[in-house]
Amino acid sequence: MxxxxxxxxxxxxxxxxxxxxxxxLKQGGEAFHVVQAATRAEFERVLQEAHFDLVxxxxxxxxxxxxxxxxxxxTAKPGLPVIIVTGTGSEEVAVVALKRxxxxxxxxxxxxxxxxxxxxxxxxxxxxxxxxHARDERDLAAAEAKYRSIFENSVxxxxxxxxxxxxxxxxxxxxxxxxxxxxxxxMEQVQDTAxxxxxxxxxxxxxxxxEQQPTIADFVSQVYRRDGRRAWISENARAVRDEAGAxxxxxxxxxxxxxxxxxxxxxxxxxxxxxxxxxxxHHRVKNNLAVVSSLLDMQARRSQDKVVRDEFQISQQxxxxxxxxxxxxxxxxxxxxxxxxxxxxFLGRSMLSFDMLSQVxxxxxxxxxxxxxxxxxxxxxxxxxLLSNAVKxxxxxxxxxxxxxxxxxxxxxxxxxxxxxxxxxxxxxGLPPGLDVATTKSLGLRLxxxxxxxxxxxxxxxxxxxxxxxxxxxxxxxAAHKNA
Length: 484
Known about the structure:
Blueprint: E1 6-11, H1 15-26, E2 32-37, H2 40-49, E3 54-58, E4 60-61, E5 64-65, H3 66-76, E6 82-86, H4 91-99, E7 104-107, H5 110-114, H6 116-153, E8 157-161, E9 167-170, H7 172-177, H8 183-189, H9 202-212, E10 215-224, E11 230-241, E12 247-256, H10 258-301, H11 306-331, E13 337-339, H12 340-352, E14 361-366, E15 370-372, H13 373-393, E16 407-414, E17 420-426, H14 443-454, E18 458-464, E19 467-474, H15 477-483
Helix pairs in contact: 10-11, 11-12, 11-13, 12-13, 13-14
C-alpha cells in the first residue's frame, strides 16, 4: 500500500489510451491524482509548474517520444521516476528505456494496463529500498569514518592480533608507544607479540587470563621498544570467538604508563625515605625520654625519703610508658599501629622492676588488639596508672605474704559491638569506702579517669573484699572522632 495520494503526470497524445490508463488507476484501490498532457509543450509546462511523484509516458508521441520525456524529466526534475507505456511490446524499446533511466515499462494492452497500479507500487517499493540502502551506506560510511578517525587519532594503542601472536591491525599510537615509525613497520617486524615482553611468560599469563574470563583490564607489563629500551604498558583486551567458541583473534588497547610507573617509584622512594626519617624520630624521642627517666632515677637515689623515691619511680614509669610506644614504632613494620599485647606486657614487666613491686604477680590477658598511636599512648598511660595504683595500695605490708599470692590482671579485647574493653583488677584489700574516681584526690586515679575520657570512654570502679576492678570501654579512633 502507498501511504499517501500520488500525483501522476500522464503523457500521451491518444485520448483513448489516456482514458484506459486513468480507468485502470481508479480501479487499483490507491489514491492517484492524474494530470494529463497530450503535447510536448503541455508536458514541459505542466512539469515545471507542479509537483509530481511519477511520470507515465507513452513511448511514441506525435513529434515527441518517451526517451525525450526521460531526458527532459532527468534534467528538470532529477530523481522523479518515469514509467514508459509502450504499444509495440518490443523488448528493444524496454531495454533502451531502462538504460536511459526509466524505472519500468508497461505494454499497452488491457491486461497489462490493469496491472499498472501494481507496477507503480513495485516502483515505489523499489525506490524506498534503494533510499534506505543509500541511507544505510551513508550511515555505514560515516561510522567507518568515525571509527577510522578514532583508530588513527587515539592516544591509546589499538590492535588486533592472531592467536599465533601476529599483529593483524595496529594504529599509529601503538607504533609510537613501541617505538616504531609506522603501524606497517610494527606489523612487519614483530613476528610474535610474546617477544615484546621483558618477562618471557607474561604473554602466556595474559592469554591464560583471557581463557578464564571474557575480558581483561589494566594488565600491566614491561615491554621492549624497537630501540631495546624498556617501557611500561597497561592493556585492556578481549578474546573474539566464533559461534562454536573457537578463538578467532584478540583485540585490545594499550596505554603508555611509563610516567605512572615512574611516579609510583618516586612515591615508593619518598615513602621509604619518610619512613626512615619517622623511625629515626621515634628512636630519638625514645632515647630522650630514656635520658629523662635516668635523670629522675639519679635524683631519686639522692633522696633518703622513701616516699620521695617512690614518687620519682612512678614518674619514671610514666615516662617509660610513653617511651615504649616510640620504641615499638621504631622496631615495628607498621608505623601507624601499636600491638597492645606486646606493649602492655612490657608495661607489666617494667612495673615489676621496682623493688617495692617485686612480690606482686602481674598477668596480661590481651587479645590481638592494635591501636593507633593517638589512642595507644592514653590507653597505655591509663593502664600504667591503674597498675601503679594497684600494686601501691592494694597490697599493704604483709598482704603479699598471705596464702593467696598478690596478683594484678590486665585484660583487653575488642567486643562484638566494636568497642574496646579494658580492665585492670587485683585481689587486694579493695577501695576505701565511698571513693569516687571522678573526684578522688589521688593523682593517679584522676589521671586515669581523664585518660579514659580522652579515649571516648568512661572509667568505672567496683570493689569488694576479694579485690578491685577498674573497667573502661571506648570506641575505635574513627568513631571516637565522629562522636567528639
